[in-house]
Design goal:
The complex is a heterodimer of chains A (about 200) and B (about 220).
Chain A lengths: L3 E3 L5 H6 L7 H4 L9 E4 L2 E4 L1 H11 L13 H33 L4 H35 L10 H4 L2 H10 L9 H11 L2 H7 L3
Helix pairs in contact in A: 4-5, 4-7, 5-8
Chain B lengths: L2 E5 L4 H12 L4 E5 L10 H4 L9 E4 L2 E4 L1 H11 L13 H34 L6 H24 L10 H4 L2 H8 L5 H4 L2 H11 L2 H10 L4
Parallel strand pairs in B: 1-2
Antiparallel strand pairs in B: 1-3, 3-4
Helix pairs in contact in B: 1-3, 1-7, 1-10, 4-5, 4-7, 5-9
Classes of the chains: A mainly alpha (about 200), B alpha+beta (about 220).
Chain lengths: ~200, ~220
């Protein structure tokens, strides 16, 4: 039976898994935080996109891209280190930048929009400064090894794709300049056929 | 050679690692990194932890940072001793554990650490509290804990009916808030209160407090 993904096509976290309804009581029965996505795998309900990814990667570990979650003790530990790096050092800033996009496009009056845009620019500067500082550390790590967890691609690298794509490609924040190792890594993970397919609405 | 933890008593993340050592009865050496003097920014430290944060561990030559990664590594390495099943191994229980761990990382930690920064850390450093951010984070954490109360009304712990690392991950920042004037976040919601009361009274967590604040 096919896994059902409940979400919205524009939400970065849904793209990670797949490829005003989520606030309804009916939806919150399955996802109490009123967020997307959640999955229904033959009656087993799961939410939190990274948890869903881990579950699917392990369930289908024999097919498709292999070793997305390493199993040897040290490989797994370094994978968990990389997953935590993304959660603490990348996600807060790129998701902050992505939410600025929603602020610009939501229905405010002119005065509210002007005020919003002023605080918006200050907040964007702070987010970019933080992101650039963290990516300087990524530059060091990715100068020693090709991927965040070591020699091979893992889920930890892929977790960067949804919000990273919004910030870097859709909003055009140039955080890769002067960081050739990060740029190399980003180009490689973002050009993967599976991610291209998700972006193109598969 | 025993495990060495490089950290600071002021660091909530360091306390999570020490907690797991207490839960799993793992002996360790503690090396102080004095973050009040910026020792975590020294080149030899940054070589080990490129984000210049505490803690990191050296386990007989194997270096690891990010407290939740360290916690997972130690729990799996010492699976057969101390508190059992902190990370379940059957696929669905494990997935629900991952869901709980992610809930902590993305729904609890950001507003909880945000409040702690504005209301507790900044005053200690003689920095100005950003009242707007504090208000925003307080509203956010209250909304999230309302949902925790729903979840914990249906099951004992965040990942189901057994305690896991996902619950323990809440202790460092949760306790910081609980003991600095924010106890009503936890006590005003009946299911959260029940869950929190059990967590904060765990002997292993009491041992962490004593470890960093020895009673003469």
């Amino acid at each position: 039976m096919v896994v059902k993904i409940y979400g919205h096509a524009i939400a970065p976290t849904v793209r990670l898994v797949a490829g005003g309804e989520h606030k309804t009581p009916a939806f919150k029965q399955f996802q109490p935080f009123g967020q997307v996505p959640y999955i229904d795998d033959d009656g087993f309900i799961l939410y939190e996109s990274r948890a869903i990814c881990r579950y699917l990667a392990k369930k289908y570990e024999e097919q498709g891209t292999l070793n997305l979650v390493p199993k040897d003790t040290k490989g797994e530990a370094l994978f968990e280190q990389a997953v935590s790096i993304e959660a603490s050092n990348f996600h807060p800033f790129v998701s902050g930048l992505a939410s600025r996009r929603l602020l610009r496009s939501c229905c405010l009056n002119t005065e509210e929009r002007h005020q919003g845009m002023e605080t918006d620019e200050t907040k964007v500067t702070v987010l970019l400064d933080n992101l650039n500082a963290k990516l300087s550390a990524y530059e060091v790590i990715l100068g020693r090894q090709p991927y965040l967890a070591g020699e091979y691609i893992t889920l930890a690298d892929l977790f960067h794709l949804p919000y990273g794509t919004v910030a870097i490609e859709e909003l055009g924040y140039d955080v890769l300049q002067d960081k050739p190792n990060v740029a190399r890594w980003w180009k490689e993970i973002s050009s993967r056929p599976a991610w291209q397919a998700v972006k193109n609405g598969a | 050679m025993p495990l060495t933890i490089y950290g600071s008593p002021f660091s909530t993340c360091t306390r999570l690692v020490v907690l797991i050592c207490k839960e799993k009865q793992i002996p360790f050496n503690f090396v102080l990194v004095d973050i009040t003097k910026g020792e975590q920014k020294a080149p030899e430290y940054v070589d080990k932890q490129p984000f210049n944060k505490v803690p990191y561990i050296d386990d007989d030559g194997f270096a690891l940072y990010e407290s939740r990664a360290i916690a997972r590594y130690l729990i799996k390495k010492y699976a057969d001793q101390g508190t059992p099943d902190l990370i379940p191994s059957d696929p669905q229980s494990e997935a629900l554990f991952e869901q709980g761990a992610s809930i902590e990382s993305f729904n609890f930690n950001p507003p909880a650490s945000g409040i702690a920064l504005e209301k507790i850390v900044k005053p200690l450093l003689a920095l100005r509290t950003d009242e707007k951010t504090l208000e925003k984070r307080s509203v956010e954490l209250n909304e999230k804990l309302d949902i925790y109360d729903v979840i914990l009304g249906k099951q004992k712990y965040l990942a189901g009916n057994k305690l896991t690392l996902a619950d323990l991950q809440h202790l460092p920042h949760g306790t910081l808030l609980f003991t600095n004037g924010f106890e009503d976040l936890f006590t005003s919601r009946p299911n959260v209160a029940r869950w929190w009361n059990e967590l904060i009274n765990r002997p292993a967590w009491q041992e962490v407090t004593t470890y960093f604040n020895p009673v003469a």
